[in-house]
């Protein structure tokens, strides 16, 4: 990597960090799923075993312990609480750091698979993506899953190119960290294992070392419950906990006004009426927070940058067509990363939210970056205009995706579609 390219990466990463840290402590109370994650991280910090008990009473009114997801993300947040303090900055700083790290990680993956020009455009795209910003400013676990997944794909690319054990080991470690943050990391494990398996078919040899991709993540997952084991819980407790997790993940009766599947809005649950509003169209964002500031209000709206989403559809189609013309392992890797984090959710047994699409966004950004790099050779002005439009759209929606106080009368200008309200 050249010195100029390194400076570019430092600048765009610093920009991303600053906008994530600005007013990070607002609102100065729990919002959205922080009512689960923060109280659990606090309990982890205090070594309170109640956090692992599905039947524990709520620690505070309108809160509950998050035993539903693996501990790693909340353990990281607990560490921040111990170091920074039990305050909004302490709760959210890890998300801001890992959310910022997604920008250089996505750049590196794009650089490895498609080269310098595409990687530059990818960095711009992911830096100007609003849902990634939102999830970097809240104490939840999705941003950790996304970072660890992108890191696993980086080392997968390196392993397929160079066949060095250290890259396979690093891939396995990051896959373990991903699934120890959220169960959907399993999608990445299965995808990468199958991808490497088929790459090995070219040589006609299946390497036993590849089983590390399955074994090490499992060990890391179990180890992420280290505090659980040290508190005196046994294997049966671990099994019972996971029975409860499985039960909840398969509930058909859940309802939420912003509930969706990957394709439909389902505010009345999966058994109720549904309308077409797929994640890929940015069709059903979620209100995370409303905070009154005198005559103004701060809105935090889990909305993606719509221009990136819509242009991204064209970019994915371009990659699919390119793959049909000339199969390339790099295209397959990116497309697998994109589709694996939303297509399986079509068949989910419970309602979801649009932020479940988050791990697909870095791969969507890479697809856009590749398309822009091809267009750059033909019409540089058009590419500059497209990047500028992405940036303008990002800053246009920045107030309602960061909680910046605005006049309450102006919120209507951001509601472009009925499904956004």
Task: Explain this structure.
- With 421 residues, this protein is mainly alpha-helical.
- It has one domain (3-420).
- It has 16 helices and five strands.
- It has a three-stranded antiparallel sheet. Strands 1-2 form a two-stranded antiparallel sheet.
- The protein is globular, with a radius of gyration of 21 Å.
- The mean pLDDT is 96.
Summary tags:
single chain, 421 residues, mainly alpha
Distance between the termini: 45 Å
Rg (C-alpha, Å): 21 Å
List segments where confidence is low: pLDDT < 50 over at least 5 consecutive residues.
none
- Write the element-wise H/E pattern from the N-terminal end onward: HHHHHHHHHHHHEEEEHHHHE
Percentage of residues in strands: under 5%
Determine the structural class based on helices, strands and strand pairing.
mainly alpha
Mean pLDDT over all positions: 96
**How many structural domains in the coordinates?**
1
The best one-word shape is: globular
Main sheet summary = 3 strands, antiparallel
Count the beta strands: 5
List the helices and strands and how they pair.
Blueprint: H1 3-21, H2 34-45, H3 72-83, H4 88-114, H5 116-127, H6 130-135, H7 142-162, H8 165-179, H9 185-201, H10 212-223, H11 226-230, H12 235-249, E1 264-265, E2 275-276, E3 286-293, E4 296-302, H13 306-325, H14 329-339, H15 361-376, H16 380-402, E5 406-407
Antiparallel strand pairs: 1-2, 3-4, 4-5
Summarize this structure briefly:
This protein is mainly α. It has helices at 3-21, 34-45, 72-83, 88-114, 116-127, 130-135, 142-162, 165-179, 185-201, 212-223, 226-230, 235-249, 306-325, 329-339, 361-376, 380-402; strands at residues 264-265, 275-276, 286-293, 296-302, 406-407.
């Amino acid at each position: 990597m050249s010195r100029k390219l390194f400076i570019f990466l430092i600048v765009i990463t610093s920009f991303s960090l600053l906008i994530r840290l600005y007013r990070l402590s607002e609102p100065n109370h729990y919002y959205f799923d922080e009512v689960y994650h923060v109280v659990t991280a606090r309990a982890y910090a205090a070594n309170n075993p109640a956090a692992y008990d599905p039947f524990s009473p709520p620690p505070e009114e309108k809160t509950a312990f998050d035993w539903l997801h693996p501990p790693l993300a909340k353990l990281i947040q607990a560490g921040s609480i111990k170091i920074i303090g039990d305050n909004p900055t302490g709760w959210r700083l890890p998300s801001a750091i890992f959310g910022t790290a997604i920008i250089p990680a996505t750049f590196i993956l794009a650089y490895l698979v498609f080269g310098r020009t595409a990687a530059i455009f990818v960095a711009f795209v992911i830096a100007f993506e609003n849902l990634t910003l939102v999830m970097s400013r809240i104490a939840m676990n999705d941003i950790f899953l996304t970072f660890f997944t992108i890191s696993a794909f980086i080392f997968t690319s390196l392993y397929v190119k160079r066949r060095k054990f250290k890259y396979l080991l690093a891939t396995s470690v990051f896959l373990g960290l991903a699934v120890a943050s959220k169960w959907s990391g399993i999608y990445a494990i299965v995808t990468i294992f199958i991808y490497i398996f088929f790459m090995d078919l070219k040589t006609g040899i299946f390497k036993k070392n590849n089983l590390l991709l399955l074994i090490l993540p499992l060990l890391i997952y179990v180890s992420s419950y280290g505090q659980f084991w040290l508190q005196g819980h046994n294997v049966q407790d671990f099994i019972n906990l996971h029975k409860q997790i499985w039960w909840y993940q398969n509930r058909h009766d859940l309802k939420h006004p912003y509930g969706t599947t990957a394709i439909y809005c389902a505010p009345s649950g999966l058994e109720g009426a549904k309308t077409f509003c797929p994640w890929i169209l940015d069709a059903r964002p979620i209100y995370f927070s409303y905070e009154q500031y005198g005559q103004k209000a701060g809105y935090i709206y889990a909305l993606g940058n719509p221009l990136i989403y819509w242009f991204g559809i064209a970019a994915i189609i371009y990659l699919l067509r390119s793959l049909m013309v000339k199969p390339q392992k790099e295209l397959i890797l990116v497309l697998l990363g994109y589709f694996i984090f939303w297509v399986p959710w079509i068949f989910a047994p419970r309602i979801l939210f649009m932020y479940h699409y988050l791990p697909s966004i870095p791969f969507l950004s890479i697809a856009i970056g590749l398309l822009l790099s091809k267009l750059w050779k033909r019409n540089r002005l058009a590419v500059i205009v497209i990047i500028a439009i992405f940036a303008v759209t990002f800053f246009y929606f920045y107030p309602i995706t960061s909680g910046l106080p605005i006049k309450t009368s102006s919120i209507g200008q951001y509601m472009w579609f009925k499904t956004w309200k």
